[in-house]
Amino acid sequence: MNKEQYRLPDGNYTTNAKRSSREWKDIYQPICDEFDLGIIGFDPSILFKKDNVSFDLPVSFCVHLRDLILAKDEYKKNTEAFQNKIQTLKNMIDETIE
What pLDDT digit, counting tens, does each position of 23-33 carry? Predict the structure, then answer.
C-alpha cells in the first residue's frame, strides 16, 4: 500500500501531512497576518484572497516576502527594546539629578 505524497514548498515530497501543512503555513501565515489576507490553497503556488479578489503568488516570491516581514518584525522588536533601554537610562539620569 502506497502512502499519499505531499509536496513541500521546496519541491520535495513527504508522506507526513502535518509536516507539509506546517511548512506551507510557515510561509503563508506571516504574509496573511501582515496584509490581512485569507488563504485559499497552496501547491504549486500560494493562492490568497482579499475581500472578493483572489490571486496567486509563486512560492519563491512568498518566501522572500515572508523573510522581509519577519526581518521587519525583528527589527521593530529590537528597536523597541533599544528605545526602552534608552528610556530606562534617561529615567536613571533624571533620578540621579533630582
Answer: 999 999 999 99
